[in-house]
Amino acid sequence: MCSRLGQWSQRTKALTLLACMRGRAQVYLLHSPEVEQDCYSTLVKRLEKRFGGYKQKPLWASQLENRKRRLGESIAELGDDIRRLTRKAYDNLGTAAQDMLGMQQLLKSTSSDLRYQCLIQGCDTVEKAVEMIQTYENIHDVTGHKGTC
Closest Cα partner for 85 from 49, 58, 52? Predict the structure, then answer.
């Protein structure tokens, strides 16, 4: 956004990107030919080729498939991570399909009681399911029952 507001040149964007990089990405870019370091689009293509999603998609899909709720993790944190993994693993799909895949994983990560509640409440997105589960868990915490997931 800053680059559009400031009407930055390709060189300014490239140098800013180089200055903001950290860790392996920074080392990788700094070892690229100097002539490429002035072209933003070339740097982005190099980063995508080296670190990009097309090689990572099977890993993200596997992480999504195996994602379960961790001890002490809130349902909102689980939902955020499921949405993130779904977007990365299936970025070629539309939002509705991503929501469906995310919902399947979220429901696999919850108790049968919570799955049932999501279904009867008509939760069709991860966001709606998270809201319903939070409400359900809050009610059960107040009444002395521990939420189960």
Answer: 58
Cα Rg of the chain (Å, integer): 21
pLDDT at 14: 82
Whether residue 144 has pLDDT greater than 70: no
- Under 8 Å between Cβ of 88 and 62: no
The predicted model gives 68-93 an average pLDDT of: 93
CB 110 within 8 A of CB 130: no
Q: How far apart are CA 147 and CA 112, in angstroms?
A: 12
> Between 144 and 101, whose confidence is greater?
101
Single out the residue of 109, 128, 108 nearest to residue 118, CA to CA: 128
